[in-house]
Write a structure and sequence with these properties.
Layout lengths: L1 H13 L6 E6 L7 H14 L4 E6 L6 H5 L7 H5 L5 H4 E3 L5 E3 L6 H4 L3 H12 L7 E6 L5 H9 L2 E6 L3 H17 L4 E9 L2 H19 L4 E7 L2 H8 L4 H4 L4 H15 L19 H4 L1
Parallel strand pairs: 1-5, 1-6, 2-4, 2-5, 6-7, 7-8
Antiparallel strand pairs: 3-4
Helix pairs in contact: 1-7, 2-13, 7-8, 9-10
Bound molecules: adenosine-5'-triphosphate (ATP) and magnesium ion.
Magnesium ion (MG) binds next to helix 2.
Length: about 290
């Protein structure tokens, strides 16, 4: 699988000088806020004057388009079938965000064979030219298609909440990723937390497990606070940073986006036998 991931990355890199940062937003457990974080991260990065595209990589059950209130006519499925070019399927979302739809509810898409999936991923990643970021929203869990998408991108944001099942499933996903690609850059984003400290704790718990059992630290990109405005924005089919820019979710999302932009991630102290992790940076704890 690693060889194929390398092949995909080579495909992406071969004909563009400026390669965007490709970032998957994923999770072990479903419903933890991936799609909301992917969309609002993408839009906040645009507000920070970056060029961004969002690929709805939740193949087979895509809904980022629904959450954005855009209605793509064609999907990646049309590329796989050879009916459309990539340029035909890109639709413009709010703030000029380029949105590539996965293909909602398409049974074939969720069950694509190896070759079809490779074609699809490489086609989507070819959008590269002129972009700073390609954010990929994935479905949850360890399904083959999800793992292949994760392998094809450079950076992985793993979203987790403070629920024990979310933390345990995040660890399971990270283990699977690192077994295939030990050097993969993995960053935890905590979501739906009541305070920044609760977010730090989510990361601390995951990091303790990865350090102890996988001998690998994972980084921390910050947290998005629990905020009822998120559900209200979802109902209105709007991104919360646009519908409620002053909300606590939007303000915490802004911090996360700046951390992603600057790769300002928190790391624990290097692994030592005694396992004394420290979390010192103020911006993450206030
Ligand atoms: N920060 C938050 N505060 C409050 N509610 C939130 C927050 N983030 C997400 N939610 C709620 O969780 C719901 C699920 O979010 P979302 O669809 O982004 O999750 P997901 O991980 O993409 O789910 P799936 O695994 O089904 O793709 C949202 O509709 C919203 O109501
Ligand atoms: Mg989703």
């Amino acid at each position: 699988m690693t060889d194929q991931a390398q092949l995909l990355r080579n495909l992406v890199n071969q004909d563009s000088c400026i390669v965007p940062r490709t970032i998957a937003v994923t999770s072990g457990k479903g419903g933890v806020g991936k799609t909301n974080i992917a969309i609002n991260l993408a839009l906040t990065l645009i507000k920070l004057e970056r060029k961004v595209a969002l690929l709805d990589g939740d193949f087979g059950l895509a809904n980022a388009d629904l959450l954005l209130g855009v209605y793509p006519k064609y999907t990646l499925m049309d590329i796989v079938n050879g009916k459309r070019e990539l340029s035909d399927i890109i639709v413009e979302g709010p703030l000029g965000l380029k949105v590539i739809a996965g293909g909602s509810g398409a049974y074939e898409l969720a069950n694509l064979g190896q070759m079809g999936l490779d074609r699809m991923i490489s086609a989507a990643l070819h959008i590269g030219q002129g972009l700073d970021f390609l954010i990929v929203d994935t479905s949850a869990g360890l399904a083959r298609n999800v793992i292949r998408v994760i392998m094809a991108v450079k950076e992985v944001l793993v979203v987790a909440t403070s629920e024990p099942s979310s933390i345990a499933d995040a660890y399971g996903l990270i283990k699977t990723i690192l077994q295939r690609e030990p050097e993969k850059e993995i960053v935890i984003i905590a979501n739906m937390v009541r305070s920044p400290n609760e977010g730090l704790l989510v990361w601390q718990k995951i990091n303790l497990m990865t350090a102890r059992f996988l001998r690998r630290e994972v980084k921390y990109g910050g947290s998005v606070l629990f905020d009822h405005k998120v559900a209200a924005a979802v109902k209105a089919q709007q991104a919360f940073i646009l519908a409620y820019p002053g909300s606590s979710a939007s303000r915490s999302m802004q911090n996360v986006a700046e951390n992603v932009l600057n790769k300002n991630y928190l790391s624990a102290e290097p692994i030592t036998a005694g396992r004394n992790l420290s979390f010192g940076r103020d911006s993450f704890a206030t």
